[in-house]
Amino acid sequence: MATITNHMPTAELQALDAAHHVHPFSTQADLEKSGVRVITGAKGVWLTDSEGSEILDAMAGLWCVNIGYGRDELADVAARQMRELPYYNTFFMTSHVPVIALSAKLAELAPGDLNHTFFASSGSEANDTNLRLVRTYWGEKGKPSKQVIISRWNAYHGSSVGSASLGGMKGMHAQGGLPIPGIHYINQPDWWSEGGDMSPEDFGLARAQELEQAIIDLGEDNVAAFIAEPIQGAGGVIIPPETYWPEIQRICDKYEILLIADEVICGFGRTGSWFGSQTVGIRPDIMTIAKGLSSGYQPIGGSILSDEVAAVIGATEFNHGYTYSGHPVASAVALENLRILEEEKIVDTLRDDTGPYLKAKFEEMAEHPMVGEAKIIGAMGSLALTPDKGARAKFAADAGTVGYMVRERCFANNLVMRHVGDRMIISPPLTITKGEIDTLIARAWQSLDEGMANVK
Ligand code: PLP
């Protein structure tokens, strides 16, 4: 077989890819019909493809490249660590310097008494850890009946059996016999789509109080934890009304329910604070982390535990771990990523300077005739597409048809935006400049105009 390189014609790469590569969340027919876009390089917020196009990545990959692409420091650290100690495990009373340093750094950055990290290689693995961990926690506390975990419809917590069950995506549950038993779902706080005649404030309270009702119905002695993202990402960047999270916190406190904040997207600056929990003002017992922890340069995730949860779990042998828990190269790269985020004041700049600029420009898109709602927090924003703004109406076409078409227009205009149904999402690298924000907004407007011209 000929060596496969960046210099091969795109069509040949596409054909090989379609023939041999099974893609997540894709159909074979689409792969064969359209052919994949082959990304060959990246710098800052810009991707280069095999045709030489320069594409503005307004999704930071999959919401993860927080410091932007092409930072040599991370490559250097990885190479150094691979030479020094490419692998060792953290099972059976062993450790190594990169994971010790990363754990200590996370304890410094995480709010409250979240001082202890259990590592995994992804957000899915970390949420699987949480599932076993909270149930084990209550067993150790002498309350073994507390086993049910409450989540939300349309939540995304990963793709493994456990984490997809924790998630509330019906399309995922429909495949592979999910969800596993012991997970209960309440509705999401999506006022624009589901709020009807209620004010956002009343709706936020009502949706939070569904948690209280579920605890009462299930019996508080049977409920272990509530899991949620501070801001739902893959569900469509659902920014809840301000009444929502304080009420959720009150309910978790009242009924002794562990609060798991899934910070896989929101963590490491995405919402303009280090963690989304700080942005929405909650005190989780456990935070799930991944993505921005290493800016996607290495696969690493984890669960950060409060002092109390860690003490209870540490009192027994938790029979759980992954070969790559606390992988030295991934840990060293994550630590370097955190150094860059901190020393270059990337989170502060987003909060105080580029974030407000992005917010102003992004919210102006609500003036587009096809945009019903333009909401953004930090560098995580969503446009709800509608045929009738006043009525908050949905397109008659199958949900997602218009969104998909606008996403294709974005691609054609060298802009990566994602669609979730008929919502258009952005989540760019946190390092995006004001000039790049202008380009992003101009290309998004153009794509919406072109999309609108195609809507019948
Ligand atoms: N949790 C949230 C909130 C996510 O957005 C994701 C991935 O998008 C996950 C968990 C799963 O993370 P991973 O894809 O690293 O397994």
From TrEMBL:
Query: What is this protein called in UniProt?
Result: Putrescine--pyruvate aminotransferase
Q: Which enzyme type, at the first EC level?
A: transferase
User: Which NCBIfam families does the protein's record reference?
Assistant: PRK07480.1
Under Enzyme Commission nomenclature, its number is: 2.6.1.113
Q: Which UniProt keywords apply?
A: Aminotransferase, Pyridoxal phosphate, Pyruvate, Transferase
Q: Which domain of life is it from?
A: Bacteria
Cofactor(s) essential for the protein: pyridoxal 5'-phosphate
What SUPFAM superfamilies does its record include?
Answer: PLP-dependent transferases (SSF53383)
